[in-house]
């Protein structure tokens, strides 16, 4: 087993008597007395609990054991489990917003955007994986920022990374609030804030396990949940459309954008599709736990194929069955009874998919704060204590976000425009031009990749500019028309 350079160097110093000790045990005691950790640069490792005078074992063997356990625990992902983890992170809220996006864009543009953006996202994710293989020290997107733009890149990317993941967790809290309101028949007088609190507590509990390999176990339930919910919605809306007067012929849907659609409405729809393909955001974090990182491409291809087929069929079928009045999230279009059934089945995906984002951002912050300490492995009392506290703080902030912006589509649009546009599209393109390409970009061997990355960069910049404008415009229109409740309102969000 290999240990961090800091640990090995400190242990070697201990054994040589650097602290004036005659042996390693005395050196460990000297570490405590002098306030120097056996892991360079960290805070002093003090006794945490127990009887008066108790000194916790910080001997070299103890340090080696804890680091070995931590490294083993965080290197258990194979490509199959990585696929499941990526599905947990990606296939959730996006699929619930696509039918409404199809209703705005029309069937032709909806299908083209779903397939085209999916292919572009898969390619960008492949570039992210290539960068991780070339620079294994990258653990999170913020590390890629440091590689690209130095210290400022690390700080800016870290801020964007953290804020984006908190936005996603807030989106899941919001969806949970909508779900509880639907299951209880409009809340039966219960304030919607209470539903948000319940959703936040569930997300907090599910985010307690810090390893993505543990999340992968829940991933199978998550994937079955979303497939079941979507399947019930498709079947239910199909049966309703056949049973209504006139059958399917009476359903109004169009191959073209709905009449009078505005620019900001069209880009809200496009941003919701972009959000559905946001799996590149957490890819560095997930790949850091792989025992064989070079197998990542298998996961990317598998996930991309599943997402493109699932999203396109979900958007097209439900839109064709319901028509232009399809709701967002789409489960609300299944009818009074079936929507309750669908929401009940979707309960695992709402919370499991949300909790993995808490784990990702928590691992980033926790690993940064305790970079040179065994606390980062979350296998000591202090490690678990700090992890649980951080989990609670992240969930609380996400709940505030969900209550302050109590509407579904604009929240997804803001998130997509400001962050996913970069993490999924234009930043991986820049990475290719800076670090991946071999030779000049205009050489014949680089033509195809240069063109693909230029397209992805252009997509990202368009979504960043027009998407952000559209999201802000949509919020202004909704509040001006009185279509939304106020922040922290007891009225259920929509």
Structural summary, described in words:
With 494 residues, the protein is an all-alpha fold. It folds into 2 domains: 55 residues, no CATH class; 402 residues, Amino acid/polyamine transporter I, CATH 1.20.1740.10. It is built from 16 helices and no strands. α4 crosses α9, α6 crosses α15 and α10 packs across α15. It is globular, with a radius of gyration of 25 Å. It starts with a helix and ends in a 14-residue tail after the last helix. About 9% of the residues have low confidence. One of its GO terms (cellular component) is membrane. Pfam families: Aa_trans. Keywords: Membrane, Transmembrane, Transmembrane helix. It is a multi-pass membrane protein. Belongs to the amino acid/polyamine transporter 2 family.
List keywords for this structure.
494 residues, AA_transpt_TM, Amino acid/polyamine transporter I, mainly alpha, L-amino acid transmembrane transporter activity, globular
Computed Rg? 25 Å
Helix-and-strand structural type: mainly alpha
Total strands: the figure is 0
- In the CATH scheme, the class of the largest domain would be Mainly Alpha
Q: Give the CATH superfamily of the largest domain.
A: Amino acid/polyamine transporter I
> Which regions contain 5 or more consecutive residues with pLDDT less than 50?
13-55
The main sheet comes to: none
Distance between the termini: 52 Å
User: Which percent bin holds the helix content?
Assistant: over 70%
Number of helices: 16
CATH-defined fold name of the largest domain:
Amino acid/polyamine transporter I
Shape: globular
N-to-C SSE string, H for helix and E for strand:
HHHHHHHHHHHHHHHH
CATH architecture of the largest domain: Up-down Bundle
Q: Give the tally of structural domains.
A: 2
